Amino acid sequence: MVGLQKGPGLGAKKGSVAAPSKTGSTQNMSANIKVVVRVRPLNMKEMQSNNRIVVDVVDDKMLVFDPKEETRPFFYQGVQQPNKNYLKRANKELKFVFDDVCGQEASNQDVFETTTKDIISSLMEGYNCSVFAYGATGAGKTFTMIGTLENPGITYLTMAHLFYTIDSFEKDRDFDIGVSYIEVYNENVYDLLKPSSTPLQLREDSKYGVMVAGLSLHSIKTARELLNMLEDGNKNRTQHPTDANAESSRSHAVFQVYVKMQYKISSQLRMVKLSMIDLAGSERASATGCKGDRFKEGANINKSLLSLGNCINKLADGSNYIPYRDSKLTRLLKDSLGGNCKTVMIANVSPSSITYEDTYNTLKYAARANKIQLSIKKNIVDGDIRASQYVKINKELKKRIKELEAKLSLSSLKTVKESDGVKEKLSQQWRQRIQSAETAHAAIESRLIANMCQQRMLALRQHLRTRAFQHLTDLAHRCSTEHIQQMCVEDIPRQERAAESYVKQCALLDTKSMDVKQVMNSAKKVKKEPSQSSEVDKFSTIDPNCLNSTFVMAHKMDWKETVKVEPNRQPIKTQMERTNTITRTNNSNDRDISNVEVKNITDSADVNIEFIQAETLDPCTSQSIPSIKNRDWEENCKENIPNNIEVPNVFDCSTPKAMLRKPVSKELSVSYDKRKSYFNPLETRKRIITYTDKKINFLKQKEIREHDLSKYAKEEHEKHMLHEEEAHKKSMLYKEEAHQKAMQQMEERHKKYMEQQEELHQIEMECKKQHLENMKIK
Ligand SMILES: Nc1ncnc2c1ncn2[C@@H]1O[C@H](COP(=O)(O)OP(=O)(O)OP(=O)(O)O)[C@@H](O)[C@H]1O
Which of 347, 365, 381 is the last residue of a domain? Predict the structure, then answer.
């Protein structure tokens, strides 16, 4: 009977899954289990037995099981006879269409391309994936899944592709990979990477599905590590030779890869699992020839595979109950068969007619499995789930905030109650502090004001003291000059006496004219010319500046008027009868010496000789003056000494009498400079009169100055008193101002204090109101 098995039509990508978007939606997707049939090449035994080929691979999607055999035409007597072997079973010629069919020539790489290569992309999108190889013993399951070093199986190829894919995704995701390798032997689970005699227990988790408790997880970075790991694991796997397979695996091996990936930007976390299962081969005891333990192993294998077949049938029928818990294998494959998993089933078959029944059963199971509808979803741990969690967290936080606010309000009310008494105490303390601070401030201010007043008084005193010192120094200076002036004044009578003695001496000279004539004989060369009088007249006018330096005061005095001596310009009489009268015009304060009449002045030569002594004596000190150093005076003398007068030799000038004697010695002639110091008596007289006038004037000036000084002292005293009064007034005003300011500040502070008190009172009232309101709400 030839019939097309139920399944997807040719060319139709049955069970193909619509590519999920990369946005990470959690939409559930319905998909069929992908079924790939792999037909292995004939082994040596099969080839030797020359058995029939029962699997004819039509194309990559379809195969024909137990196809019709070509029969040679039989002719009898030239007529073709029907070739009918009634003893032979009729060929089934069953056409199977699967997702993929790999022929005998297909390599593991080809199988990988058609089976697991696509599911890696699904894995990266967050779907759990599983691949399991199903088939009879010796059908090539282990070869397909594990392979050899030269021809590695799809486990290695899948992992290599996984690492390749991870490399391309590492820019935006962080990956963490862990692997486990277990076997189910005689309905017990063992860790192949961590060998132990005690079997592991299976646990079911609502989130992650079936989990093996105590399973060791190993992280790997490269596919090469995986190869070594698989090799080590397979060494621990239970394998025993059977008649059907020299390296028959007596257990179901489950290799699982856990991939944890986290997006770097969104921190979305995805946990996915890839299971690759190498099932133990279903076997017939007659074919395997197993006895004892091997038989028992086979029975368990068959049992688990039977339960797997039952589950597949139920799933294909759409039954509500799936007996996953019938065996450990079905429990492990729960997710892969009917859960949240994209599953690929590789059905390994042998083309030889030796395994006719096994191949037929395998194909039937594969066809049934192909009908199973899966509901899959992405395993996103983070992302949108986190968003929903955020909403929950937000709500919880809001609740928490409300609770805390309520607690806070209660605690604040309590504190308000507790602090009622404390506030009063505190306010009293603060009042006391403010009062003490104010009193201290007032004391400091008063001290400051007193200090400032004292400072001002001291400055004033200092000023007055300096002025007084200046005044005293001025007075001392004036006293010193006055002393000199007084001395001069005291000498005035002496000057008068000198003038009187001068008049007497003139008279005496008149009487002794004869003797003088004799003396004059020594100066015969002197000619009496009319010009002499004019020469003498030249001495009539004396400039005060031409006075001897001896008469100049220590400090310059302001003379109110220049004293002018106006001699009578009467012609000078010859002989003794001639008299010269000197009249002096002066101010009203002139004394009794104002009108001094000088009589009996002889000729110039006589006068010159007679008054040498008088001139050389200082009128103030009556001491001799050795020389006259006033330049002007010298010039005057030089000009006024008549040219025709022969300067006599040196005379003895120790006494008046001696002056009238003859020259001491002719040899000791006097030089011109020396002679300049001797000047004529007329000039001396004039000088005395001038000096007297000056003294009188000076006295007047002194009186005026004394008067002025007393006046000035009075004024200064008055000024000083006025200053003191003003300073006192100012200090008093400043004190008053400072006091007023201090009082204003005190008032302002008091106001502020009262305002603060009011505010405190208002706050207290508000607190009480709130408290009452809260009590009402409660
Ligand atoms: N596609 C293939 N090409 C070449 N040799 C193959 C192929 N498939 C299987 N074989 C060989 O067939 C033999 C049995 O294969 P394998 O061990 O994989 O079978 P099995 O299904 O795993 O058996 P069991 O269930 O008993 O373990 C092995 O020697 C393997 O080398």
Answer: 381
